[in-house]
Amino acid sequence: MPDLAPGPAPLPADPAGDEAREVAPDAAPVTGEPLPLGVEPTRTGHSAVDAALARLEALDGVPTEAHVAVYEDVHQRLTDTLAALDQDDPLGSTARNDP
């Protein structure tokens, strides 16, 4: 007996069509080049975290394909920072609460 499980439902058609879509008057023209976002990370006051987050600023104007390597680097830096916190407190924070 063949498997008769339904597949995903088709997306509804756009009744207005592409002609009805408006572009904001201040929108940048589509050139195929990435545009800078101009977003700056909020400083945390922890130098290692701030240094990791500063790497995200390197993504402004960079093609999306290049973002993965930067995200992986930032993730690794933040992971290392968290691991270092555990090394600074080998007994864990719960040990401090014991009478």
Give descriptors for this structure.
mainly alpha; 0% strand; single chain; 99 residues; 2 helices
Secondary-structure element pattern, one letter each: HH
Number of helices: 2
Mean pLDDT: 74
Q: Roughly what fraction of the amino acids lie in strands?
A: under 5%
The termini sit apart by 68 Å
Task: Supply the helix-strand structural class.
Answer: mainly alpha
Architecture overview:
- The chain is an all-alpha fold.
- It contains two helices and no strands.
- α1 (about 45-55) runs antiparallel to α2.
- The longest helix is centred in the C-terminal third of the chain and has 22 residues, at about 65-90.
- The mean pLDDT is about 75.
Strand and helix map with partners:
Elements: H1 47-54, H2 67-88
Helix pairs in contact: 1-2
Short summary:
With 99 residues, this protein is mainly α. It has helices at residues 47-54, 67-88. The protein has two helices and no strands.
